[in-house]
Amino acid sequence: MKIALGADHGGFELKEKIKVHLFKKGYEILDLGTNSTSSVDYPRFGHAVGYAVSNKNVDYGIVICGTGIGISIAANKIPGVRAALCTNTTMARLTREHNDANVLALGARIIGDVLAFEMVDIFLTTNFEGGRHSSRVNSIETI
Ligand code: RB5
């Protein structure tokens, strides 16, 4: 499974840790930056990950900024992207089961590393439930 990672300066350090975490588990990584703690604008990285997901270059994306808010808003501008900002493991599970989210958004200044790893693992291993959720998700795409 191939995962695109993107972060601004606020999310850079957590991105690097998640990259190591995923690499150890055998995931293929597409790192779309940023590559340092120097200040950058988060929309660029939300768009880059969103396009990689939308174009099916990767299976899922993970975007990280200080709060996770700005970069999730940016990723969600790309058609076909369903980016979910999650702050706990229940949200990470339910957004896969109910929303078929294809991008996980995290706030590096909001959550700790261990929780982030747990949410990433749950997000990447939980299946969409389909059923009654399918028409709702399809409705999003028609907006
Ligand atoms: C950068 O200072 C910060 O605004 C950004 O990382 C993010 O939190 C925006 O939503």
Automatic annotation (TrEMBL):
InterPro entries documented for this protein: RpiB (IPR004785), RpiB_LacA_LacB (IPR003500), RpiB_LacA_LacB_sf (IPR036569)
E.C. code: 5.3.1.6
Keywords: Isomerase
Pfam families, sorted: LacAB_rpiB
Sequence positions that bind D-ribulose 5-phosphate: D8, H9, G66, T67, G68, I69, G70, N99, R109, R132, R136
GO MF entry, a single one: ribose-5-phosphate isomerase activity
Alphabetized SUPFAM superfamilies for the sequence: Ribose/Galactose isomerase RpiB/AlsB
Record: active site: C65, H98
Domain of life where this protein originates: Bacteria
Gene Ontology process terms (BP): D-allose catabolic process; pentose-phosphate shunt, non-oxidative branch
Similarity comment: family membership: Belongs to the LacAB/RpiB family.
UniProt protein name: Ribose-5-phosphate isomerase B
Organism of provenance: Fusobacterium necrogenes
Chain's gene name: rpiB
